[in-house]
Amino acid sequence: MSDVSTTEGLDWATARGMGALAQKMGMEFTEFSIERSVATMPVEGNTQPVGLMHGGAYVVLGESLGSMAANLHAGPGRLAVGVDINATHTRSAVSGVVTGVCTPVHLGRSITVHEIVVTDDQGRRCSTIRITNMIKDAPQAQ
What whole-number percentage of the chain has pLDDT above 90? Predict the structure, then answer.
């Protein structure tokens, strides 16, 4: 499915949906293809008690982008599932919106690796996330 355009990819992601957690956190896809996926998320409502963006919120944004991109790459009848994720937080957003940009590091038949860079409104890197997904055949409908 590597020839999917950004428009086709965004249509696919919108039709599939991001899931209940992503919706609760206010994520919105703005660009979606196998080569580059982008989503935004508000800081408000996703903070620690001291008002900083919660580190787990960065990870949810990264995992949502990386897993969805891996599933687009996997294609029909196949399913990508996360097997490893890590994050390094280097700055704390305190207001506005953060943006995650997901790019592939490796796109294989059975494993994908994506890097997600999350920046604040000023374009400053706040978190770098790497996710590895395993691709397998989707379960057959019963």
Answer: 84
Answer for the pair 67, 121: CB distance below 8 angstroms, yes or no. Answer: no
Q: Is there a catalytic annotation at residue 44?
A: no
Mean pLDDT (whole number) for 41-58: 97
Dist CA 67 CA 36 (whole Å): 13
pLDDT at 2: 47
Q: Which of 8, 44, 63, 115 does the annotation list as catalytic?
A: 63
Segment 118-136, tens digit of pLDDT = 999 999 999 999 999 999 9
Q: What angle do CA 35, 38, 40 make, to 5 degrees?
A: 170
CB-based contacts of 51, cutoff 8 Å, min separation 6: 94
Report whether 78 contacts 104 (CB < 8 A): no
Segments in the chain forming alpha helices (H):
6-16, 20-24, 55-74
Helix, strand, coil tally for the chain in percent (to 5): 25, 40, 35
Q: What is the C-alpha separation between 14 and 28, in angstroms, rounded?
A: 9
Q: Which two tokens stand for residue 3?
A: 């020839």
